[in-house]
């Protein structure tokens, strides 16, 4: 293990691997530690087209294509009485993948190694030492051998996932959203069907009175099939079954739509349960550190945005550090841009996911909300329905990349913030109790602080930040 490094990355999932690779390709010395030994199982199999764009930037997309994952061109949402197709291939000319995360994550980590990142697995980061607010050392505990410190680095990237090395253990700045406190239960099948008109390799999302189902085709004829519901509903219903397997099978057969998809399929067994509580930290970075992926925030998996947010934050953090390292921007300016870019992405997707849980809106309401969130709200005649174009772009993750790289396309901060706050406050069912700050604060204040950011992200001829002028209207 190297003694001196410019950047220490904690966590070897997609966020950590992409950030480390992007920096190494800019000539920055990077060391990465990961607590698990890969390959390791992980949920989050359905990727957005934005992931392709980001992986192309670090020259690994072709490796993912060649690996044999299912190519994903869109999907079908069946939400209450509405059903609609989103086809990224025909509408946007881009596709993504349905992946086995154990294999996908290992592929990204191996790519990091091949680009010069010093990778060590089986090492957990347990404690961070700070000096005047800046991290100066990380206490590491290997699964074999004695604990040791890494204490010679300039930047710490926290990609530790939901464990949240910095946010939960040191900064105490993670705020939970009381409106999206869900639980997911899932397993695997072979040879399931898809809903009619599903684009090639597409995901199916099907609502129910108590939640929603995902149906994701994977390589080898397998399918990931899961159900997401509120924690209180899950807890109450769990009492009626002798096992999670029994509960899962009952949930699958409750939905007529899902039941038809698995009618001739083989159940492979092995039930998983995980909480999907949405949260965000008050701040995503500070002197000498950046929090990326789930270490900074997590959003309900309804629109498969988890890996998008991980890769987007990873590339943005890497661009910030690379520019600071070359003396092109100050550290403060880079942190302002990172906060601006990452929180805007989270805030916008939070608003859209939350609005979809308000079922009475219908798909026309979802589409109109999407128009407002992108800033392309058209003037509609009485009785005219909204187009799905903005919705299709949003769930592809592309507006976040467009706005980071082209300041002229950015929607006014106040508009995004107001939309997200409106949804969040409408969803609030109870006042926050003592010691549980209002989640709305993490949606509002940092966006205002970062509103005057004057940079854009560039990937060519080098990764970094470039000074520009943000559109003011």
UniProtKB/TrEMBL annotation:
Keywords: Monooxygenase, Oxidoreductase. InterPro entries: FAD/NAD-bd_sf, Flavin-dep_Halogenase_NPB, Flavin_halogenase. It comes from the Bacteria. PANTHER family: FAD-BINDING DOMAIN-CONTAINING PROTEIN (PTHR43747:SF5), FAD-BINDING PROTEIN (PTHR43747). This is Tryptophan 7-halogenase. The lineage of its organism: Bacteria, Pseudomonadati, Myxococcota, Myxococcia, Myxococcales.
């Amino acid at each position: 293990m190297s003694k001196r490094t410019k950047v220490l990355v904690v966590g070897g999932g997609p966020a950590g691997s992409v950030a480390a690779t992007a920096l190494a390709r800019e000539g920055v010395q990077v060391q990465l530690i990961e607590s698990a030994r890969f390959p390791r199982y992980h949920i989050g199999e359905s990727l957005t087209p934005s992931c392709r764009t980001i992986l192309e930037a670090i020259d690994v997309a072709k490796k993912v294509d060649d690996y044999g994952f299912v190519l994903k061109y869109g999907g079908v949402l069946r939400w209450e009485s509405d059903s609609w197709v989103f086809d990224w291939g025909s509408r946007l000319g881009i596709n993504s993948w349905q992946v086995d995360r154990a294999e996908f994550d290992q592929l990204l980590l191996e790519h990091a190694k091949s680009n010069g990142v010093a990778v060590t697995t089986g090492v957990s980061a347990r404690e961070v030492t700070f000096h005047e607010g800046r991290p100066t050392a990380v206490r590491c505990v290997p699964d074999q051998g004695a604990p040791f410190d890494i204490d010679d680095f300039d930047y710490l990237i926290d990609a530790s996932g939901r464990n949240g090395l910095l946010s939960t253990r040191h900064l105490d700045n993670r705020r939970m959203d009381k409106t999206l406190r869900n639980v997911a239960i899932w397993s695997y099948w072979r040879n399931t069907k898809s809903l009619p008109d599903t684009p090639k390799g597409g995901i199916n999302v099907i609502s129910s009175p108590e939640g929603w189902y995902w149906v994701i085709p994977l390589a080898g004829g397998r399918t990931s099939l899961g159900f997401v519901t509120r924690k209180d509903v899950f807890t109450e219903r769990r009492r009626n079954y002798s096992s999670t397997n029994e509960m899962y099978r009952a949930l699958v057969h409750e939905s007529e739509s899902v039941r038809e998809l698995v009618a001739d399929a083989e159940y492979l067994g092995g039930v998983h349960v995980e909480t999907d509580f949405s949260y965000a930290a008050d701040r995503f970075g500070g002197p000498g550190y950046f929090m990326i992926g789930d270490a900074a925030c997590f959003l309900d998996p309804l629109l498969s945005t988890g890996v998008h947010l991980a890769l987007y934050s990873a590339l943005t953090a890497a661009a910030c550090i690379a520019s600071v390292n070359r003396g092109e921007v100050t550290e403060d300016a880079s942190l302002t841009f990172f906060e601006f870019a990452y929180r805007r992405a989270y805030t916008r997707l939070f608003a859209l996911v939350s609005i979809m849980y308000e079922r009475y809106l219908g798909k026309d309401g979802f589409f109109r909300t999407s128009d407002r969130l992108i800033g392309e709200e058209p003037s509609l005649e009485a009785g005219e329905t909204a187009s799905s174009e903005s919705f299709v772009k949003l769930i592809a993750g592309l507006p976040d990349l467009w706005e980071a790289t082209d300041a002229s396309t950015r929607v006014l901060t106040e508009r995004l913030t107001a939309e997200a706050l409106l949804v969040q406050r409408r969803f609030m069912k109870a006042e926050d109790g003592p010691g549980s700050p209002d989640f709305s604060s993490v949606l509002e204040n940092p966006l205002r602080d970062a509103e005057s950011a004057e940079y854009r992200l560039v990937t060519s001829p080098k990764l970094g930040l470039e000074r520009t002028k943000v559109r003011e209207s």
